[in-house]
């Protein structure tokens, strides 16, 4: 059965929201406040990427925002050529400015929907995608993007994903939504928690961890690894 996404935010609405939210995504130490364990998942994804590809040269950051994940990656493997993708030009401008200060490698920006990425085959050692795949809507979107990443990675390269997730069981989903609400309430109170839940309901279509692990397997990834899961957030990846 097809899910109806007609009431969800359009790409233009998502782009406009992020155009106006650059500063919130520019703190390398804290990462994104609404993400549980944000500094830990950033550390684990970039450390996994380094262990898998210590001599990496080419990095792609999908939905890079202001560049936090790429900056963290450059602190572990300097001088990478960095390809930065995002829907939002203000995000990309900020990311380019910050990333160019930290690498002598080439910095390339691609302002486009990740579904439209036209990437070279067998080119990247590392692909990072943090808090962004949850904007994908249909099964076809998810498979298209995961396949593009697979084809664009060199054999032995890896994708590292950190994202909001759902759960396949309705009751377990409720359990972790409740836990997430409590977490948000301790950060900013009940009104803040509801605000975050409202924008997730309007803007996001996350998938479960098992859905994404199965999809990584389906598009061809050889080794699939879970780095961390806490409540509605997970860090995981696949090695080609
Ligand atoms: C929550 S932010 C995360 C930014 C960054 N990855 C980080 O962890 O700091 C999500 C980013 O994904 C971008 N984005 C949303 N939908 C996208 C799409 N379809 N294609 C490319 N980027 C997208 C947004 O513009 C935004 O900058």
Report the CATH architecture. Answer: 3-Layer(aba) Sandwich
Q: Which distinct ligands sit in these coordinates?
A: S-adenosylmethionine
How many strands, which pairing sense, and closed or not: the largest β-sheet? Answer: 7 strands, mixed
- What strand line-up does the widest sheet have? 3-2-1-4-5-7-6
What does the overall shape look like? globular
Mean pLDDT, rounded to whole units?
96
* CATH class wording: Alpha Beta
Molecular structure report:
- The protein is an alpha/beta fold and 240 residues long.
- It has one domain: Rossmann fold, CATH 3.40.50.150.
- It contains seven helices and seven strands; from the N terminus they run ααβαβαββαβααββ.
- The protein has a seven-stranded mixed β-sheet with strand order 3-2-1-4-5-7-6, with helices on both faces.
- A hairpin with a 2-residue loop joins strand 6 and strand 7.
- Helix 2 crosses helix 3.
- The protein is globular, with a radius of gyration of 17 Å.
- The model has no long low-confidence stretch (mean pLDDT 96).
- S-adenosylmethionine (SAM) binds next to helix 1, helix 3 and strand 2.
């Amino acid at each position: 059965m097809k899910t109806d996404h007609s009431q969800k935010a359009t790409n233009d609405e998502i782009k406009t929201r992020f155009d106006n939210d650059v500063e919130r995504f520019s703190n390398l130490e804290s990462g994104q406040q609404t993400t549980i364990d944000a500094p830990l998942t950033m550390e684990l994804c970039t450390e996994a990427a380094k262990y898998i590809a210590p001599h990496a040269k080419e990095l792609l950051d999908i939905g890079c925002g202001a560049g936090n994940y790429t900056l963290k990656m450059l602190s572990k493997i300097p001088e990478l050529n960095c390809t930065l993708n995002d829907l939002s030009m203000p995000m990309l401008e900020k990311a380019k400015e910050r990333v160019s200060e930290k690498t002598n490698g080439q910095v390339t920006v691609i302002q486009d929907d990740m579904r439209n990425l036209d990437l070279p085959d067998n080119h990247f050692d590392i692909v990072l995608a943090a808090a962004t795949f949850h904007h994908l809507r249909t099964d076809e979107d998810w498979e298209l993007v995961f396949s593009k990443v697979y084809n664009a990675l060199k054999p032995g390269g890896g994708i590292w994903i950190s994202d909001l997730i759902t759960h396949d069981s309705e009751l377990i989903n409720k359990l972790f939504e409740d836990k997430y609400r409590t977490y948000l309430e301790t950060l900013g109170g009940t009104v803040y928690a509801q605000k975050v839940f409202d924008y997730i309901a309007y803007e996001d279509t996350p998938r479960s961890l098992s859905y994404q692990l199965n999809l990584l397997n389906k598009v061809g990834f050889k080794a699939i690894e879970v780095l961390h899961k806490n409540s509605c957030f997970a860090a995981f990846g696949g090695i080609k």
